[in-house]
Amino acid sequence: MAGNQSDLAAILARVADGDRAAFRALYERTAPKLMASVRRILRSTAAAEDAVQEAFVRIWRNASDFDASIASPIAWMTTIARHAAIDIVRKGAERVSAASATIDAELAERIAAPLSGGDPLASGRLATCLDRLEADRRGMVVLAYCYGWSREELASRFDRPVATVKTLLRRSLIALKECLGGE
């Protein structure tokens, strides 16, 4: 392993000098390890691939910052990849939050309408769309918008952090709106 790490350190030094062949070799030797690391953070393979790509862009740009006295090459690269994955998670949450800001009020009315004698056609379509959600997400949506549960109550009931409940609710509302034809 020590020989492998010193080989990677030498390759990183060549990458720092702008050697594209060294960068290709570095990618081939380390991409699977970095992918395994980011897959623990990101559930989607596509998102993990994006994180690894972003990590390698950062590695290319910052290879001269690598210091073997501080970390091994793979530890340094894994840290960069983990940060890229976390950035993707944060961007996703921000995008979901921004996209769903206007959905909450209008869809809340529609979800609650079947319980108050709303349009049966809308109710049937809504029921079909609700059935497409995972059970815990469906439960959160119904408890929140039909029974008025707070995010804190949902977090306690589903044993999830409040921020996660908020994100799951918003993602579920986006899915419902798309299922209902974006109306």
What does this structure look like?
This protein is mainly α and 183 residues long. Helices cover 77% and strands 0% of the residues. It has helices at residues 2-16, 20-39, 45-62, 73-100, 103-112, 120-131, 135-145, 151-158, 162-179. The longest helix has 28 residues, at 73-100. The protein is elongated, with a radius of gyration of 23 Å.
CATH topology of the largest domain: Rna Polymerase Sigma Factor, Chain: A
- Rounded average pLDDT: 80
Measured distance between first and last alpha carbons: 58 Å
- Residue stretches low in confidence (pLDDT < 50, at least 5 long) are 94-106, 114-121
What is the oligomer described by this structure?
single chain
> Helix count?
9
Number of strands: 0
Beta-strand proportion: under 5%
Q: Indicate the percent of residues in helices.
A: over 70%
What is the fourth-level CATH superfamily of the largest domain?
RNA polymerase sigma factor, region 2, helix turn helix motif
Radius of gyration: 23 Å
Shape type:
elongated
CATH class of the largest domain: Mainly Alpha
Key structural traits:
Rna Polymerase Sigma Factor, Chain: A; 0% strand; single chain; mainly alpha; Arc Repressor Mutant, subunit A; elongated; 183 residues
Layout of helices and strands, plus pairs?
Blueprint (H helix, E strand, L loop, with lengths): L1 H15 L3 H20 L5 H18 L10 H28 L2 H10 L7 H12 L3 H11 L5 H8 L3 H18 L4
Summary of the model, kept short:
This protein has helices at 2-16, 20-39, 45-62, 73-100, 103-112, 120-131, 135-145, 151-158, 162-179.
